[in-house]
Records
---
Amino acid sequence: MSDGADRDMGLDVALIQTCTPATAAAGLAHVEPLIRQAAAEGAQLILTPEGTNFLEQRKGLREVALSSETEDVCVKGLKALAAELKVWLLAGSVIVEAGVADDGRAANRSLLIGPDGQVMARYDKIHVFDVDLETGERWRESAVIRPGEATAVATTPWGGLGLTICYDLRFAYLHRALAQGGARLIAVPAAFTRPTGEAHWEVLLRARAIETGSFVLAPAQGGTHEDGRRTWGHSLVVAPWGEVVERLDHDHPAVLHARLDLSAVDKARRAVPALMHDRILHPPQ
């Protein structure tokens, strides 16, 4: 199929919103019915949130839950599901062993799985979330997650899919690089905290869509998790002109469907060709 034909196609996407439990087996049991529902309702591309296999910040329990990508029960199940249902499935992220020199940290990794059940693209989260919030919450993701070093634009039948994860959303240059590297869709799977989600989630997603002239697909974790964390939910699909195409207005597990007119990408980029107008600037002295 030609690139031009791909761009004229519509695309049925589904975003899965979850409240992922603390083990990979439970994570698969939680997300599988939602993926099956999405496929039965016609989705061609299905996206799950950050931490799809498990969310667990308590050290001992986290170490028990962690395994390699090839051995993770949830990853195995997601690959089998994609093959059975004949869909493209983005595991927004899974927490797995980093597969590099062992310093005790894991990888926070997106996996794009094709309809044959094979992993078509991988991306390890580049920006890790270290912050002290006014609520008293303290996050040191760098203590447990090894940051990735490479961007990723995956090839799909509908054009390039740029891969990001959660805190990456705050770094406009990453999304710009993905768009300039061929992304027409950008995935932002997330587990945003409630304070930052309420304040910044939607406005940042809309900004990234406008800046890049891309569809932004943002499946989210929502609710209170077994380890005590509370996530914002409110999954969104944003069009290249910045309008919200579809949204969930809650933090409960659910399936969010959207029909995308992919010609909107070219239309937005013709109207505001900012991706072509970079200038090299230096910090003030």
---
Amino acid sequence: MAKLTEDERLFRKIEDKIKRAIFDYGLINDGDRILVGLSGGKDSLALVDLLGRRSKIYCPRFEVVVAHIVMTNIPYCSDREYLRSCAEEHDLPFIVHETSFDPSTDTRKSPCFLCSWTRRKALFEIAKAHKCNKIALGHHQDDILETLLMNLTHQGAFGTMPPRLRMDKFDMEIIRPMCLVEERELIQVAAWKGYRKQLKNCPYESGSSRSDMKELLRSLEAINPEARYSLWGSMTNIQEDYLPRKIR
């Protein structure tokens, strides 16, 4: 038997993390039909690749549909044929949906929030139209930890994007199968697999504080290399007796 390369071993490690997330957090069940949002970034490309492969294992048995949303008022040059080929590599249906948003409709919200919510609503509509009961997003562990730090810093709240979220209003579940996968692992896999980077020129991107949270997470890991795992564990280890009570 041929010896696995370092990249192949890493890819198998990521596949094991996907399997663990699926079963530990109850993300996928037999009979699920899952819509994957494919933006064209490394994370969503990896998610299509990983779920496409996983769907052929039949444990659990599920189907995958891939959707690419084009925001017509933002200069974003995606290679639709390449994205289609990534879906068709695993025999997955591929849908292109065009939409837009007006940043002046709610000045209390940032354009990034409005864009993200418009995309999310479009995913709900596509999922319903194609009889999907779940939507899979390409958020990895870094995204979830950065959101935790962002909420602590800016909102004064201890919360983040959970691996599984029930949206009763839309009769839909959002799942994040890559919740245990580190971004650095995905960067290495993207280089090995040769994922094509899509061109993006978003005029609102600089307004996001996510890049600051990335730096904060790196700083914490410089202090303690195990910091990310401590942060992850803290979310299920709330010691209420050692916290101040809420003042009414």
---
Amino acid sequence: MAPAPPMRLFTLVRARGGPRILPIYSQRFFCQSPKLRMDFETILQGKYPAKRHAQRVSEYIRSKIPNATGVLYLESRATKLLEDNDEAEPFRQRRYFYYLTGCNLADCYVIHDMDTSKSTLFIPPVDPESVIWSGLPVSAEEAKEKYDVDEVRYTSDLNATLANVGANKANATIYAIPHQVSEQVTFLEFDHKNFSILKEAIEVTRVVKDEYELALIAKANAVSEKAHVAVLENVKNAQNERELEAIFLAECISKGARHQAYHSIVASGRAAATLHYVHNNAPMAGKLNLLLDAGAEWDCYASDITRTFPINGKFSPESRAIYDIVLKMQLECIAALREGVVWDDVHLLAHKIAIDGLLELGILKGDKDEILANRTSVAFFPHGLGHYLGMDTHDTGGNPNYNDTDTMFRYLRVRGPLPAGCVITVEPGIYFCNFIIEPFLRDPKHSKYIDAAVLEKYWDVGGVRIEDNIVVTKTGSENLTTVVKDPAEMERIIAAN
């Protein structure tokens, strides 16, 4: 169920220790989609819908090239040894290949006949020399049972199969991706070769997810929920950020998710103002908050979740005031989502809410329309509201414009209307980063809108970000993220441990 339209969610009160924006939201804003939560395990008992994806890609190609005929060709990631070592590098499957196969094996190939809709997967044959070290590989029979393809052959048959298909297709085209074709592979029998459209076709079709893909992202979120809660339960007694990163990773691995969607951000105190903080090794004593941006990956599909909470189990008045502004930004932006909504407009809404909140706290001063027009709020909310999510954390198809002269939209990773079926992160934040804010304080265009004396009380807040993974629907949205974000509940969990 989509979140209800926001009513009066927040009220400003004066309290000991400073002003606070108190939420008066209903618990319904924290209820996630029961359907998606209940069904994903059942959905994932089926096969990854690779052939359906191949057909969608073919349809896209034909929308650009009428009457297109031929074969789609893709390669998996090849095994690569570490330098000065006899072991392979950590394997990450090539996402374009996975989209048309659901196969997470190295050194494979796939061809999909656009005319017959037949998919043929090529896997490595048994190498007797490697069996003693690595065991038996997947057999052709096992692969046929596991993956959504019509036929499985061995890679030793690849060139002969390509030659046969090309020779028997009049005026046929082979579609491939530049720099993703091995030197030993030949397309000599094909009349035409197209290296320009396939990558685009896959990137565009990946934006709208089918039920199985949503189930994979929901599963990644479910695993990540357990890991986020484990960090909440241990944060009060941790001495260093690395302890909490280890707890998160251990919980994910124990639940079957060996891979992370991205390098975790475990930022305490002022480090939370660094958007992509990577050190995760600082002591936490004496610091107010922890920002945890971390998400597991499940069968190549990502989750991307951020929570910010007090290390000692109780928000300071300043931290709680900023948290409540960010939560209001997120809830109202989620409530605005539906098919066709322009993401740029939702991002603008987040800035307007941030300006209202910072004005109430006295950090900003002056006319809110002037503050918006001058882009002064970018000092506190410098990044985009979110991005598409799928096989990549920053998934394909967003059409960003990093050369935009408007600083409010320059780092927005998605531009334009949102289609139903896309998954997008909603991750507003407010940050107190000296490096970013101090130039605004020195610029008369912006400094007249910032009260430096009030700002001084907020530096130790560091940064607050709240991030969920949202499915856009025709009439609203569904939230795949089940991690607690109610500030009182987070405080309760921390204090109880």
